[in-house]
Design brief:
Structural class: alpha+beta
Distance between the termini: 84 Å
Strand order of the largest sheet: 1-4-5-6
Strand content: 5-15%
Number of strands: 6
Number of helices: 15
Shape: elongated
Order of helices and strands: HHHHEEEEHHHHHEEHHHHHH
Radius of gyration: 40 Å
Helix content: 55-70%
């Protein structure tokens, strides 16, 4: 063997060099990554996958689509709504996973160890400094091991518990975002539905009118060629016809996409044709009424707006984040136990169990404790200020929505009156045309004026319906009940109908904001004279004017003397639902109403009208 030893060494060096070159080549190829655009096959595959979802079959449209059915289809098939549902599902899955983080670690392991020679060793005599000269071993060349270890860090458990609470609040935030999307979708459906109704009504009238205008233009061109009339008169007539036709084409452009927009909101595939359930022609008496007072809507909005509830849940998350930051500054306690097995034949006990505890603490982290606490508190204050600023914006949105609804109600009434007048004017022109007193141009212009007035009336009515829905959205009212027994279209349509019919009673039954801000006080009524003196004593103490500073904050100084605090029950509170329903709109918004004497109601919090919470879904 000694004869071949020199010839074997170069070969080993070459093998090691070859291995190094291969490893270097693999490493270099792994580091050279270049951008790779999508191929045509990948694009086609993506397109097929997306279209299979977008073009998925839906429940067929059996007849004309009403507004409630359009809303039900939007809730069930709209992709934005389905995205929010998937976000809620992902948040729930994340919560389920975070619960496992609170469990201790239970790790099982098994292994095999082998070597090509004995693991021997010598020992050194420390007294003489000499080796013993005997090689010994205490390990088999081949052995098997198995372990089952239990580890639990109490500090990690606390951190994981707070993280799980944060994830539970993220689930509620996802639900509030879904509520906000549903409210916005139903508002858009309401507006698009009425615009589509206006388009269905007027596009059928525009086409024959355009044909009459084209025929009149041909006649005018013939008169100009024959020089029967003066050239200036003929050209003015043609210009009037062209202006009228251009006006009709502008109207067509505004209306032609309304139905497609409604279909997109309903989740229908592009190009699907459907018919609308045509309601009767609107008149000035068709103004939707809002009987709930603006004060109750403000209170309901502050209690139920998705944005405010989301910020409240963010405040919880920030508070838990502060606790997590402070918890990490504490020492960690590890509890551990384990079962072990080793097939080493030299061991006295091949199976054994061990257990113990360990405390570890990064003492230097205490130096950052004040800054960590200050930063966490600053985050909590930021969330609080953001929620307070949002509350001011919510109050402003409710007021602005009510003002816009009132103005659009008046505008719609005027447009309805104008449309009625233009209809009668057109009838007069038609009657005059039959007896030869008016030409075609006057009749056509009268018909166009009537058509424009009808369109303006219907579009303003669509804006009025949008303003009506904006009041609901600004108040944070859910257009559907909290629980829906089924997700089929018939059940959803009935749920939408019930929710839209009862939202004012739900929102209007909330106590006013000023009543919630006044702290509950004991009664100030004097006891009757026939009662025993022991019953008068507590009443005399209650008669001290403790509520005067509160009354000074709620009324003007000139009215402060006219205010008499009194205790009433919820049944005695002025309910907005008792307002007359014959008026087009009854809201307590007029600035002049603020000059009337204001009563301060001291209602205990437990007696307030219940408010539905959006989280109970």
């Amino acid at each position: 063997m000694t004869r071949f030893a020199p010839s074997l060494r170069p070969r080993g060096r070459k093998a090691r060099a070859s291995f190094a070159l291969v490893a270097a080549a693999l490493l270099a190829s792994g580091c050279s990554v270049s951008p790779k655009p999508l191929s045509d096959d990948e694009n086609v595959s993506r397109l097929r996958e997306d279209m299979s979802v977008i073009m998925s079959p839906q429940e067929p449209i059996a007849g004309p689509v009403s507004m409630h059915e359009a809303m039900a289809r939007a809730i069930k098939y709209n992709l934005d709504e389905r995205v929010k549902l998937m976000e809620m599902a992902v948040a729930n899955q994340q919560l389920d996973l975070s619960r496992f983080d609170m469990l201790p670690r239970l790790v099982a392991g098994a292994g095999y160890t082998g070597r090509n020679n004995e693991s021997g060793s010598e020992s050194l005599n420390l007294a003489t400094g000499r080796r013993t000269g005997e090689s010994t071993t205490a390990t088999d060349r081949h052995r098997r091991t198995a372990d089952l270890g239990f580890t639990w860090n109490i500090l990690d458990f606390g951190v994981s518990y707070l993280r799980a609470r944060q994830n539970s609040n993220l689930v509620l935030i996802a639900d509030e975002r879904r509520r906000r999307v549903v409210q916005g979708i139903l508002q858009d459906v309401r507006t698009s539905y009425w615009r589509a109704v206006a388009a269905e009504r007027l596009l059928k009238r525009i086409e024959p009118l355009e044909k009459r205008i084209e025929a009149a233009r041909k006649n005018a061109n013939a008169l100009e060629a024959q020089r029967i009339q003066a050239p200036l008169q003929t050209l003015s007539y043609q210009r009037a016809l062209v202006d009228t036709l251009r006006q009709l084409q502008t109207l067509r452009r505004e209306l032609v996409a309304a139905k497609s927009q409604l279909g997109a909101l309903m989740g229908l595939p592009p190009g699907d044709n459907f018919s609308l359930q045509m309601p009767p022609d609107v008149t000035g008496k068709d103004v939707p009424a809002i009987t709930a007072s603006v004060e109750s809507l403000e209170t309901y909005a502050l209690l139920n707006r998705p944005e405010l509830l989301e910020e409240s849940y963010n405040a919880r998350i920030t508070a838990d984040e502060t606790r997590r930051a402070l918890l990490k500054l504490l020492p960690g306690i590890d509890l551990n136990a384990g079962l072990h097995y080793d097939s080493n034949s030299f061991l006295l006990n091949q199976r054994w169990a061990d257990y113990g505890a360990r405390v570890s603490w990064n003492i230097l982290s205490l130096a950052s404790a004040p800054d960590t606490h200050a930063f966490s508190k600053a985050q909590e204050e930021l969330v609080a200020f953001r929620r307070q600023a949002l509350s001011v914006a919510v109050l402003s949105q409710v007021r602005v929505a009510m003002v816009q609804f009132r103005e659009l109600s008046q505008e719609f009434t005027l447009n309805a009156d104008q449309a009625s007048i233009d209809r009668r004017i057109r009838q007069q022109y038609v009657n005059s045309s039959t007896v030869g007193q008016q030409g075609d141009l006057s009749v056509i212009q009268a018909e166009v004026s009537e058509l424009v007035s009808d369109l303006r009336r219907d579009l303003v009515y669509a804006d009025l319906q949008n303003a009506y829905a904006r009041v609901m959205v600004s108040a944070g009212v859910d257009p559907m009940p909290e629980a829906v027994p089924s997700q089929d279209l018939a059940t959803l349509r009935q749920a939408v109908s019930d929710g839209l019919g009862a939202w004012q009673q739900k929102a209007g039954g909330t106590a006013r904001l000023q009543d919630l801000l006044v702290p509950a006080a004991t009664t100030s009524e004097k006891a009757p004279a026939e009662k025993a003196p022991v019953e008068k004593a507590p009443v005399e103490k209650v008669e001290e004017p403790k509520a005067a500073p509160v009354a000074a904050r709620t009324v003007e100084p000139a009215e402060r003397k006219a205010v008499a605090p009194e205790r009433v029950t919820v049944a005695e509170l002025p309910q907005p639902a008792a307002a007359p329903t014959t008026a087009p709109m009854t809201v307590s918004y007029s600035p002049s109403s603020r000059s009337e004497p204001v009563k301060v109601y001291t209602v205990p919090p437990s007696a307030l009208a219940p408010v539905g919470h959006a989280t109970a879904r």
